[in-house]
Predict the 3D structure of the following.
Amino acid sequence: MLISLAALMLAAAPAAEPPAATPAAPAGTAAGAEAFFEPVTKMEGPALQVVFGERATVHLGEDGVPAIDKTEKGKLAIAHPPGAVKDTYAKPKAGQIAVALDGSAEKKASYLKIWNGLDYPVIYKAGVLRMVGRKLAPQSVKVCAVPAGGTQYETWTGPPVVAVALGSFTKAADEKTCN
Protein backbone atom coordinates (compact mmCIF):
# COMPACT_ATOMS: atom_id res chain seq x y z
CA MET A 1 0.00 0.00 0.00
CA LEU A 2 1.36 3.44 -0.91
CA ILE A 3 1.22 6.09 1.77
CA SER A 4 1.76 9.71 0.81
CA LEU A 5 4.93 11.35 2.00
CA ALA A 6 2.87 14.21 3.44
CA ALA A 7 1.02 11.74 5.68
CA LEU A 8 4.29 10.13 6.78
CA MET A 9 5.82 13.50 7.66
CA LEU A 10 2.82 14.67 9.68
CA ALA A 11 2.50 11.34 11.51
CA ALA A 12 6.21 10.95 12.31
CA ALA A 13 7.40 11.46 15.86
CA PRO A 14 9.50 14.61 16.42
CA ALA A 15 13.17 13.96 15.78
CA ALA A 16 16.25 15.90 16.81
CA GLU A 17 18.21 14.37 13.93
CA PRO A 18 16.89 13.55 10.44
CA PRO A 19 15.74 9.91 10.35
CA ALA A 20 17.22 7.33 8.01
CA ALA A 21 16.94 8.49 4.42
CA THR A 22 14.16 7.35 2.11
CA PRO A 23 15.33 6.76 -1.45
CA ALA A 24 14.26 9.36 -3.98
CA ALA A 25 11.97 8.10 -6.73
CA PRO A 26 10.84 9.56 -10.03
CA ALA A 27 7.76 11.77 -9.67
CA GLY A 28 4.63 9.74 -9.04
CA THR A 29 6.41 6.44 -8.39
CA ALA A 30 7.00 4.47 -5.22
CA ALA A 31 10.18 4.84 -3.19
CA GLY A 32 10.35 1.34 -1.78
CA ALA A 33 6.92 0.11 -0.71
CA GLU A 34 6.26 2.89 1.80
CA ALA A 35 6.08 6.32 0.24
CA PHE A 36 6.27 8.46 -2.85
CA PHE A 37 7.01 12.10 -3.46
CA GLU A 38 5.63 14.17 -6.29
CA PRO A 39 7.36 17.58 -6.47
CA VAL A 40 4.13 19.56 -6.83
CA THR A 41 2.42 22.00 -4.48
CA LYS A 42 -0.90 20.29 -3.78
CA MET A 43 -3.32 18.85 -1.26
CA GLU A 44 -2.37 15.34 -0.20
CA GLY A 45 -5.36 14.08 1.77
CA PRO A 46 -5.85 16.52 4.68
CA ALA A 47 -2.27 17.85 4.37
CA LEU A 48 -1.00 20.73 2.28
CA GLN A 49 2.29 20.00 0.49
CA VAL A 50 4.33 23.04 -0.59
CA VAL A 51 7.48 22.52 -2.64
CA PHE A 52 10.65 24.63 -2.74
CA GLY A 53 10.25 27.91 -4.65
CA GLU A 54 6.46 27.95 -4.45
CA ARG A 55 3.61 29.34 -2.39
CA ALA A 56 0.11 28.05 -1.77
CA THR A 57 -2.75 30.33 -0.76
CA VAL A 58 -5.53 28.45 1.02
CA HIS A 59 -8.68 28.86 3.03
CA LEU A 60 -9.58 26.56 5.91
CA GLY A 61 -12.73 24.47 5.98
CA GLU A 62 -14.81 24.20 9.15
CA ASP A 63 -12.78 21.09 10.02
CA GLY A 64 -9.47 23.00 9.72
CA VAL A 65 -8.50 21.23 6.50
CA PRO A 66 -6.98 23.66 3.98
CA ALA A 67 -8.28 23.98 0.43
CA ILE A 68 -5.99 25.52 -2.20
CA ASP A 69 -7.16 28.78 -3.75
CA LYS A 70 -3.96 29.45 -5.73
CA THR A 71 -0.37 28.31 -6.18
CA GLU A 72 2.50 30.41 -7.53
CA LYS A 73 6.27 30.41 -7.96
CA GLY A 74 8.39 33.07 -6.30
CA LYS A 75 11.10 34.10 -3.84
CA LEU A 76 11.43 35.12 -0.20
CA ALA A 77 14.01 37.89 0.32
CA ILE A 78 14.96 36.54 3.76
CA ALA A 79 16.12 33.27 2.16
CA HIS A 80 18.83 34.97 0.06
CA PRO A 81 21.81 37.26 0.67
CA PRO A 82 20.82 40.89 1.40
CA GLY A 83 19.69 42.68 -1.76
CA ALA A 84 19.91 39.57 -3.97
CA VAL A 85 16.13 39.21 -4.45
CA LYS A 86 12.92 40.91 -3.40
CA ASP A 87 9.87 39.18 -1.98
CA THR A 88 7.66 38.33 -4.93
CA TYR A 89 4.53 37.46 -2.94
CA ALA A 90 1.71 39.85 -2.00
CA LYS A 91 -0.19 39.62 1.28
CA PRO A 92 -3.14 37.21 0.90
CA LYS A 93 -6.75 38.35 1.21
CA ALA A 94 -8.56 38.41 4.55
CA GLY A 95 -9.71 34.90 5.45
CA GLN A 96 -6.79 33.21 3.66
CA ILE A 97 -3.54 31.62 4.79
CA ALA A 98 -0.49 31.51 2.50
CA VAL A 99 2.57 29.27 2.84
CA ALA A 100 5.87 29.73 0.93
CA LEU A 101 9.11 27.71 1.00
CA ASP A 102 12.47 29.05 -0.21
CA GLY A 103 16.17 28.90 0.58
CA SER A 104 19.64 29.40 -0.84
CA ALA A 105 23.04 27.78 -0.80
CA GLU A 106 24.56 31.11 0.30
CA LYS A 107 22.47 31.19 3.49
CA LYS A 108 22.73 27.41 4.00
CA ALA A 109 19.14 27.39 5.26
CA SER A 110 15.55 26.82 4.19
CA TYR A 111 12.80 29.27 5.12
CA LEU A 112 9.06 28.82 5.51
CA LYS A 113 6.88 31.93 5.64
CA ILE A 114 3.23 31.75 6.64
CA TRP A 115 0.83 34.66 6.25
CA ASN A 116 -2.29 34.47 8.43
CA GLY A 117 -5.22 36.45 7.03
CA LEU A 118 -7.55 35.18 9.79
CA ASP A 119 -8.69 37.19 12.80
CA TYR A 120 -7.23 34.67 15.26
CA PRO A 121 -3.82 33.01 15.76
CA VAL A 122 -3.36 29.65 14.02
CA ILE A 123 -1.25 26.63 15.00
CA TYR A 124 -0.59 23.59 12.81
CA LYS A 125 1.58 20.49 12.53
CA ALA A 126 4.36 20.23 9.97
CA GLY A 127 6.97 17.96 8.52
CA VAL A 128 9.76 18.62 6.06
CA LEU A 129 11.37 16.58 3.35
CA ARG A 130 15.14 17.12 3.25
CA MET A 131 17.67 16.26 0.57
CA VAL A 132 20.33 14.34 2.51
CA GLY A 133 23.09 13.48 0.08
CA ARG A 134 21.20 12.04 -2.88
CA LYS A 135 18.29 10.72 -0.81
CA LEU A 136 15.08 12.22 0.57
CA ALA A 137 14.51 12.12 4.34
CA PRO A 138 11.23 13.09 6.05
CA GLN A 139 11.39 14.82 9.44
CA SER A 140 8.78 16.25 11.83
CA VAL A 141 9.56 19.79 12.93
CA LYS A 142 8.54 22.14 15.72
CA VAL A 143 6.47 25.12 14.58
CA CYS A 144 4.89 28.05 16.36
CA ALA A 145 1.57 29.86 16.01
CA VAL A 146 1.04 32.47 13.33
CA PRO A 147 -0.44 35.65 14.86
CA ALA A 148 -3.82 36.94 13.71
CA GLY A 149 -3.28 39.09 10.61
CA GLY A 150 0.48 38.52 10.84
CA THR A 151 3.31 36.35 9.55
CA GLN A 152 5.60 33.72 10.99
CA TYR A 153 8.93 32.40 9.72
CA GLU A 154 10.38 28.96 10.40
CA THR A 155 14.05 28.42 9.54
CA TRP A 156 15.89 25.13 9.12
CA THR A 157 19.65 24.90 8.67
CA GLY A 158 21.39 21.81 7.40
CA PRO A 159 20.31 19.70 4.44
CA PRO A 160 17.98 21.62 2.08
CA VAL A 161 14.23 21.29 2.54
CA VAL A 162 12.59 20.36 -0.77
CA ALA A 163 9.01 20.28 0.53
CA VAL A 164 6.94 20.91 3.62
CA ALA A 165 3.66 19.28 4.61
CA LEU A 166 1.25 21.15 6.88
CA GLY A 167 -2.00 20.04 8.46
CA SER A 168 -4.14 19.97 11.60
CA PHE A 169 -4.71 23.75 11.47
CA THR A 170 -6.52 24.98 14.60
CA LYS A 171 -7.12 28.18 16.50
CA ALA A 172 -4.14 28.70 18.84
CA ALA A 173 -4.64 29.47 22.52
CA ASP A 174 -2.26 32.40 22.03
CA GLU A 175 0.47 33.63 19.71
CA LYS A 176 3.20 31.91 21.75
CA THR A 177 1.85 28.36 21.26
CA CYS A 178 4.26 25.92 19.61
CA ASN A 179 3.88 22.28 18.44
Summary: The mean pLDDT is 85. The chain has one domain: 3-171. The chain is about 5% helix and 45% strand.
